[in-house]
């Protein structure tokens, strides 16, 4: 049986809300990161989308905190 649903890992672009879910952050935090230039995004008209590779770059750049 063939599914037409696309797996989340196969996505190339995410809305800020989807990116917040993937990163386990709040939506407002994602918008703040975008505004500060800490999280790259593409803009098409009024839509903002975040490339999967930029989500990965952001996560990889986070500093590990020791307890």
Keywords:
67 residues, 15% strand, Multidrug-efflux Transporter Regulator, Chain: A, Domain 2, alpha+beta, 3 helices
Q: Average pLDDT, to the nearest integer?
A: 89
Order of helices and strands: EHHEEH
Fraction of residues in H or I helices: 40-55%
Spatial extent as radius of gyration: 13 Å
Oligomer: single chain
Per DSSP, what share of the residues sits in E-state strands of 2 or more residues? 5-15%
CATH overall fold name: Multidrug-efflux Transporter Regulator, Chain: A, Domain 2
Shape: globular
Describe the structure in your own words:
The protein has a 3-stranded antiparallel beta sheet with strand order 1-3-2. Helices cover about 40% and strands about 15% of the residues. The protein is globular, with a radius of gyration of 13 Å. The chain has a single domain (about 10-60), classed as Multidrug-efflux Transporter Regulator, Chain: A, Domain 2 (Orthogonal Bundle). The longest helix has 10 residues, at about 50-60. Helix 1 crosses helix 2 (about 25-35). It is an alpha+beta fold.
